[in-house]
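Study this:
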Amino acid sequence: MSSLQNKIDFVALVSVTRANSNGDPLNGNRPRTDLNGFGEISDVCIKRKIRNRMQDLGNTIFVQSEDRCDDGFGSLSERASAVMKGITDRDEYAKKACETWLDVRTFGQVFAFKDSKGLSVGVRGPVSVHQAVSVSPVEIESLQITKSVNGEKKAKGESRASDTMGAKHFVRFGLYEIKGSINVQLAEKTGFTQADAETVKECLRTLFVNDASSARPDGSMEVVKLFWWEHNCKDGQYSSAKVHRSLEIRQKENVVTPGCPEDYDYI
């Protein structure tokens, strides 16, 4: 497999329509927003979705969701111990981890578990992903919901009704920017290849495949555009910040409140 030769920058534009793009557990699971009302999606959330897509594409993943576990291990510690058994050299440990798991050689990982006999290994990954922010402020709506069955058996003498109140929160519409970069020097250290970069590109393009839930109905979140810049050298002829700024997104003059991706011009 060919090694990565040129730095890469990317931007994925994601539309969110009546969906909870990324709930905040400290705020009643409402979609995340900043103090100015712009929507946010955490980088951890984005990486989780990329990892899920890597797994869907048949790659071996270290950080697996519990409901997607495909190797029978109940924790990261168990998974690491089974594969790294007997390895005590840090460099050898990191090399084996990168060879085994695509997400480790992509995003990096810290290995520091109780059963590793004091061995702590840190791997820096070449792919960095920014926190996604919406292009315009978003409007959050809430719906009161009820369920007409009891989750638990009533205690003797209890007169509690079966209807239970709750709430669902969603973004009416938002266009979010996911920015990221791939560093060649770190790719050389982890063994991240050109083929791996193409896998990441495909994961971004299909980010919300197999991601539907009651908070994110199928089709409510979509990658509408993916910009992928390959530089002509390892360090890149421009900084990542300058490349990301080169994409200008403007709300059309005749649009008061954006309601779809076509309400913006992409320059």
User: Anything to note?
Assistant: The chain has seven helices and 13 strands.
